């Protein structure tokens, strides 16, 4: 991975309007990176690129003054525990980013093959080398079909005499669309939590399970006693990104419903807020602004995940109608089934009703990350640093 | 001795076992077919609804499962985990074919036993009012797999061999039948159930780089030899056995496997083609434990499906 140092900060200007400068950096490889620097707040930040023969993803590494890191990322080796990090195929990129965050994290490999009958044929390389080490597995359950093979590894790793086992599952699927309303409704979120609660314990006790922005807050109670769920959030990444924006003092955060407000308002307290709600009008359900005023503001809609994007789009329209000058969105999990991300166009300025200035997602859903690469308005905020920190718990 | 009273059983099933479930229900008035809505959300995850869930309360409940591929496991498991919690009087999962583990070998540290994963998932079925769930499996591949299950489930290991015996007795030459086992593993599994037939045991021996099937014991000359095994994948082993038996004078060769796994349509190589004078296998019996195969081959010669329906209906009364 190549690290590119930022150009020297510009002399600070007393003018209220930030000087925007466009710089083109050409890297030794054939890729070009464009970055915008604000002279009003010279900050040191690096652009990290993942290059493995693929087009560059701009992933912002948060500056050191982040509130979320309980232990500094620069902690010396002897204070951090060495972790052997395994991962599923679809999380390869994120696993590499995590490993590059810290010398204490070492990537390990698994051979993922299938037998003729379609069932998995798996091999954990250098299994003996994991004895007495802290082990972790970075999983991604993007569809039901990939659960069984990853689960087989998850059930096998703790029994290899590891000193502790952590399962990082950035996005906990199921439960986003289902409602337990009638007896007969089957809660697949319960199935998944039960399967994970049954991970064998290791020398280090119950498995540590790291999940980002779990959809239903009650789901935390679905887990049994033999697992230690650790609920993290992607919001600190958003906070960092917002602070870097030239109009960071003109930002208002909007929640598409009360659920989102409940989940996130405490982490976003120092921003003015808008709360939307769906109200019934005859047969239809319409999004309205319940509280707050978007007039003249750059409004950032915040939610934990996005599926078809219908709700976000409706919020966007209402906010634009009420005078928002710019609209952006943040979701931790960009699920976007059936390429539904395509409906989100870029607004270069002046058209908040039909486009977004930014659409931030994290890399919890790797398939989407691959699809939206270099497609404005999308920007990927990587969970790598947050996960590297969580692995030190 | 008074026979225990028959119990009414509500039988649920997955999409691929519908046909077998209907056959099971047809066996007895005490077995009632129920239904589940199997849909999915846009993100691909299951959207499931158990119809008439209230009717389950106080009743014996069963689920006929089939894990033909990894992609159908999660949705069926969700139903399996939900049913016992609806105040059922007892819960039974019938999984005719227990997949995984047919190829894998635990030889080195690092080999991952997916059979263990599956057994663990089944062992974690919630208990119901009737205690631990019963899990009915036919001709499990590795005999040790019975020990993979925890204390919270009651595995019941059944076999399809009685269906074969019944069928063999219907053959005109039932006195000239010899049973052949393709390897020692098959002999261990089945010889006690078939001990009134003369037997042949084959095995694979190494000759340089290659492995050849040889007859270890027994003589096929002039007989109708029936090769018996628990399952078939590509069919390579079976074909080699047939060739060796024919070469040693077998008059006819047939085959029986409980589970016709046949990945990638490997059953095609066994079909009787119309213009062939020589038909390698006279009969090829499989059960309906692998519903996708049964759908594909129906009863194309030499295949004949022996249904587990009667046996399952009996097992549900346990």
UniProtKB/TrEMBL annotation, chain A:
Residues 12-24 have a biased composition (Low complexity). It comes from the Eukaryota. PANTHER family: RIBOSE-PHOSPHATE DIPHOSPHOKINASE FAMILY MEMBER, RIBOSE-PHOSPHATE PYROPHOSPHOKINASE 3, CHLOROPLASTIC. Residues 284-333 form the Phosphoribosyltransferase domain. Belongs to the ribose-phosphate pyrophosphokinase family. Keywords: Nucleotide biosynthesis. This is Uncharacterized protein. Transmembrane segments: none annotated. Residues 1-27 are annotated as: Disordered. Residues 1-11 have a biased composition (Pro residues). Pfam families: Pribosyltran, Pribosyltran_N. It catalyses: D-ribose 5-phosphate + ATP = 5-phospho-alpha-D-ribose 1-diphosphate + AMP + H(+). Residues 84-197 form the Ribose-phosphate pyrophosphokinase N-terminal domain.
UniProtKB/TrEMBL annotation, chain B:
It catalyses: D-ribose 5-phosphate + ATP = 5-phospho-alpha-D-ribose 1-diphosphate + AMP + H(+). Keywords: Membrane, Nucleotide biosynthesis, Transmembrane, Transmembrane helix. Residues 215-262 form the Phosphoribosyltransferase domain. Residues 11-124 form the Ribose-phosphate pyrophosphokinase N-terminal domain. SUPFAM superfamilies: PRTase-like. The chain crosses the membrane at residues 79-98. It comes from the Eukaryota. The keyword Electron transport does not apply. Belongs to the ribose-phosphate pyrophosphokinase family. This is Ribose-phosphate pyrophosphokinase 4. It comes from Penstemon davidsonii.
């Amino acid at each position: 991975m190549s690290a590119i140092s930022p150009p020297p900060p510009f002399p600070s200007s007393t003018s209220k309007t930030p000087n925007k400068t466009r710089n083109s950096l050409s890297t030794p490889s054939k890729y070009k990176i464009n970055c915008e620097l604000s002279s009003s707040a010279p900050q040191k930040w690096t652009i990290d690129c993942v290059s493995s023969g693929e087009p560059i993803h701009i992933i912002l590494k948060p500056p050191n003054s982040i509130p979320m890191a309980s232990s500094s990322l620069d902690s010396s080796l002897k204070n951090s525990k060495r972790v052997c990090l395994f991962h599923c195929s679809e999380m390869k990129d994120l696993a590499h980013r995590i490993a590059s965050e810290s010398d204490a994290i070492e990537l390990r490999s698994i051979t993922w093959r299938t037998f003729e009958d379609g069932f998995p044929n798996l091999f954990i390389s250098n299994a003996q080398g994991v004895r007495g080490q802290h082990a972790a597995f970075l999983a991604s359950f993007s569809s039901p079909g990939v659960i069984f093979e990853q689960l087989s590894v998850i059930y096998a790793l703790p029994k290899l005499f590891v000193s502790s086992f952590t399962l990082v599952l950035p996005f906990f699927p199921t439960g986003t669309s289902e409602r337990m309303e009638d007896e007969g409704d089957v809660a697949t979120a319960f199935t998944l939590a039960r399967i994970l609660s049954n991970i064998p314990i290791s020398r280090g006790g119950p498995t540590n399970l790291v999940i980002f922005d779990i959809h239903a807050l009650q789901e935390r109670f679905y887990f049994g006693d033999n697992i230690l769920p650790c609920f993290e959030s992607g919001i600190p990444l958003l906070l960092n990104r917002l602070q870097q924006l030239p109009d960071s003092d003109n930002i208002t955060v909007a929640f598409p419903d009360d659920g989102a407000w409940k989940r996130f308002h405490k982490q976003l307290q120092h921003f003015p807020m808008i709360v939307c709600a769906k109200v019934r009008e005859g047969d239809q359900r319409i999004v309205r602004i319940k509280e707050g005023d978007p007039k003249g503001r750059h409004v950032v809609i915040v939610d934990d995940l996005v599926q078809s994007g219908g709700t976000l789009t409706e919020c966007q329209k209402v906010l634009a109608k009420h005078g928002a000058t710019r609209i952006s969105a943040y979701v931790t999990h960009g699920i976007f089934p059936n390429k539904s991300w395509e409906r989100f166009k870029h607004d270069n300025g002046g058209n908040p009703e039909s486009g977004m200035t930014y659409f931030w997602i994290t890399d919890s859903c790797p398939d989407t990350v691959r699809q939206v690469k270099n497609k404005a308005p999308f920007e990927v905020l990587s969970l790598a640093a947050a996960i590297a920190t969580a692995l030190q718990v | 001795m008074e026979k225990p009273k028959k119990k009414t059983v509500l039988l649920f099933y997955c999409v691929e076992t519908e046909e077998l479930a209907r056959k099971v229900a047809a066996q007895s008035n005490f077995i009632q077919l129920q239904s589940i809505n199997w849909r999915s959300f846009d993100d691909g995850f299951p959207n499931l609804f158990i119809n008439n869930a209230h009717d389950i309360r106080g009743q014996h409940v069963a689920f006929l499962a089939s894990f033909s591929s990894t992609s159908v496991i999660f949705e069926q498991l969700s139903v399996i985990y939900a049913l016992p919690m609806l105040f059922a009087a007892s819960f039974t999962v019938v999984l005719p074919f227990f997949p995984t583990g047919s190829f894998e070998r635990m030889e080195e540290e690092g080999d991952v036993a997916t059979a263990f994963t599956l057994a663990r998932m089944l062992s974690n079925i919630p208990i119901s009012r009737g205690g631990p769930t019963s899990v009915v499996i036919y001709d499990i591949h590795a005999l040790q797999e019975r020990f993979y299950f925890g204390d919270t489930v009651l595995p019941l290991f059944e076999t399809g061999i009685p269906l074969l015996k019944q069928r063999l007795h219907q053959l005109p030459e039932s006195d000239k039948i010899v049973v052949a086992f393709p390897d020692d593993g098959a002999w261990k599994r089945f010889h006690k159930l078939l001990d009134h037939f003369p037997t042949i045991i084959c095995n694979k021996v190494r000759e340089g780089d290659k492995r050849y099937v040889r007859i270890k014991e027994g003589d096929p000359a002039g007989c109708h030899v029936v090769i018996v095994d628990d399952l078939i994948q590509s069919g390579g082993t079976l074909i080699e056995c047939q060739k060796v038996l024919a070469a040693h004078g077998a008059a006819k060769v047939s085959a029986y496997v409980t589970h016709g796994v046949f990945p990638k349509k490997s059953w095609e190589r066994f079909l009787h083609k119309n213009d062939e004078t020589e038909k390698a296998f006279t009969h090829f019996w499989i059960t309906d434990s692998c519903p996708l195969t049964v759908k594909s081959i129906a009863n194309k010669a030499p295949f004949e499906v022996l249904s587990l329906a009667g046996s399952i209906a009996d097992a549900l009364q346990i």
